[in-house]
Amino acid sequence: MSNLLKSLLPCLLATVSLQADQPNVVLIMADDIGTGWFPFHADRLQVNDLEPEILASYAEKRGHLGEVDPIEHIKAARNCMPFLDKLADEGIIFDNCFSTASLCAPSRAGLLTGTFQQEWGAYWNRDVDDYGIPADRVVMAEPLKAAGYTTAMIGKWHVAKKDPTLIEKAWTEELGESLPIPQFYKGRWPELRNILKGSGYQSSSFPGQHPLDRGFDYYYGFNSHDSKYFEAEELWENHERVPPRPPGEFLTDLLSDKATQFIDSAMKEDKPFFLYYAPMTLHGGIVPPPKHYSEKFDTGNRFTDEYAGHMLAMDEGIRQIFAALEANGELENTLFLFTTDNGCTLYDVPPYNAPNRGGKGTGWFGGLNVPLVIWGKSIKQTGITEEIISLADLMPTILDHADVAIPDGISGKSFIPYLTGEEEEGPRDFLNSVSIQSSRWSYYYEGNGENNTRDGIKAPLYAWHFDGTHLFMRVTPTRAGLYESLPDGLPAQVMLYDTSMDRQQRYNVAAKHWDKVEAMDEVMREWLAGLKEPVTSQQDDYHMLLTKVEKEPFIPESGSSGPDKSVR
Hints:
Residues 23-160, 192-404 form the Sulfatase N-terminal domain. The chain is of the alpha/beta class. It folds into two domains: 3-15 and 27-158 and 246-381 and 401-428, Alkaline Phosphatase, subunit A, CATH 3.40.720.10; 432-545, Arylsulfatase, C-terminal domain, CATH 3.30.1120.10. It has helices spanning 3-15, 39-42, 52-62, 70-79, 82-90, 104-113, 125-129, 141-146, 165-175, 189-199, 251-268, 291-294, 302-327, 365-368, 394-401, 416-419, 514-529, 539-545, and strands at 24-30, 92-98, 150-156, 218-222, 236-237, 240-241, 273-278, 334-340, 372-375, 383-390, 431-436, 461-466, 470-475, 493-498. A ten-stranded mixed sheet has the order 6-5-4-3-7-1-8-9-2-10, with helices on both faces. A four-stranded antiparallel sheet has the order 11-12-13-14, with helices on one face. Helix 11 packs parallel to helix 13. It starts with a helix and ends in a 23-residue tail after the last helix. The relative contact order is 0.16.
């Protein structure tokens, strides 16, 4: 338990009465899925909302005879999650929800702590993989548990360091000798790889950073970027490794079953519950799901049908969760939230992150604009809203709804007054973001689709400021030689987009509206100055972003590696 939470416990225990009607909370975070693949967004898509680069890339990689039917792909997206679509119709859909980073680990850290994780120097995956969530940061489950909730984390944790003692123990038991120091690994990598696989290290959690150490009563999942969709070998139940799962067992179905089992178990305790469910859908090496999911789709492209089948499998899990709530008489007393950690990846499956540009690992809207559906009988605001909301806002919103004290020092804002109709507008007029601008995880426009899987540590940083209608964005210089298509690199870039008309960020209007650029830059730099520099890399890039935007910047046309000749 964090020191900050310990200081809150007397207040929490004194002010929160444990009543049977305290609301349950189900929070689901899916993996690597952008807006375009959810029915409540896809219903509003037209073919021209899909990026031509993505259609061309997917046609080249996986197209049938080199072709892709965008209409059939949109149709698949409209039909792949019918149950979630029903909940969205009854609840509220946030069109302007943004993750705190466009990568798995930092995005999840921001969600779970109600902060912009850059405040402690976490900008990309390595910053979290190497350090985890600091002990002085409160994790969402901790105040809920202190207030009498039964809590569970099921699925992908990925916010903790790994436990190195497992390697040492496995090496000694397997080889009968002490683990050599790293410089003596050379020549022994095959042995080390086998040890890593067999020890459980790759999906383990460092002591103090394990879900059970951060407010969760029950844990079934893995602390890694992914697992296997079938016969999973990387799972843990509480502090024990789960034996390899049986042949034919599908991970999404298994995790959904664990979620419903937790609900049934929690109801026997006569206590409110908090379920954080993070399925792996759709991360990592995608393999065909069980046929009864994918056979319902016919896009003319087998991989797309399988992709949609994975979505349908996750939807079936949500339906099962609601069936368990109904069977236990808890539908009226449950707040449900669904989101994802970031946009789609290099699979480039149309409609991808439409109507946005770009994807995972970048500052383009497609990397950070994530779906958010909130459903509950106490929610009065319904329909589609353009209110700006961050995933960092979900923790204070959940705590506020549960009548649990919100810890001091978090940057998230509660949306409960807006959701319950007490206020007509949400608490955010604008949002800022900063992270890496990489080619590793999604289509790289500046390099015409080039993919450097090792650019993370050397990629430039982006930073942006969004006010609801305009997006101001800066990108630090791209190093020479980092990409074959850009041997000389790129200078710093400055961009301004009217997102009310240009969601795909095609038309950079920075040169025409320099006064607005300078004003937005000032607000953004003030926010950046309150963060910590990245803990593992890109420190120089961070300090570049703290300097005032230059009067004569390199203003590129999106999708081009050259200066913009037709700003409008």
